[in-house]
Amino acid sequence: MKKDEFKEFVKNNPKLIKYVKNNEMTWQKFYEMYDLYGEEESVWQDYINKNTDDKNDKTINKASKAGIAGLTLSEVVNWFKNVDLDGLQEGIGNVQRVLGVVQDFSKKDNTTPTKEAYKPRPLYKHFED
């Protein structure tokens, strides 16, 4: 099956994963190339044999290891580019409202109403005498 062969090809060439993570290519495009051309080297040389990218990734990795564990600087930048700020602000607003409701409940629980002490009715009195 062609799909299984493609999976083996990707396992043998893990550099392809970087292109998908950096949103430079998609698995669909890679699969279509593999389906049309197979493992022919001239087609894949742009993606597999790039030595300059490896050097850049190593320097970025060294810089980013001090900050975010396991993520390259380009991955972090791409992540921030894809963040929906309006959605994030709306989510923070929702959290603030929930915290306000929780605080209101906790304030009400702390103030228990004072009840009058129970006074038994004298034995010689009847109802409202």
Q: What are the defining features of this structure?
A:
single chain, mainly alpha, 129 residues
pLDDT averaged residue by residue: 76
What low-confidence regions span 5 or more consecutive residues with pLDDT below 50?
A: 52-56, 58-67
According to DSSP, the number of beta strands is 0
Q: How many angstroms separate the termini?
A: 98 Å
Largest sheet: none
Shape: rod-shaped
Indicate the percent of residues in helices. 55-70%
Enumerate how many helices there are, as a single number. 7
Overall radius of gyration: 33 Å
**Order of SSEs, N→C?**
HHHHHHH
How much of the sequence is in beta strands?
Answer: under 5%
The SS-based structural class is mainly alpha
Explain the overall architecture.
It is a single chain. This protein has 129 residues and is mainly alpha-helical. It has helices at 2-12, 15-21, 27-37, 41-48, 51-65, 73-81, 85-110. The longest helix has 26 residues, at 85-110. The termini are far apart.
Layout of secondary structure:
Elements: H1 2-12, H2 15-21, H3 27-37, H4 41-48, H5 51-65, H6 73-81, H7 85-110
Short description:
This protein is mainly α. It has helices spanning 2-12, 15-21, 27-37, 41-48, 51-65, 73-81, 85-110. It is built from seven helices and no strands.
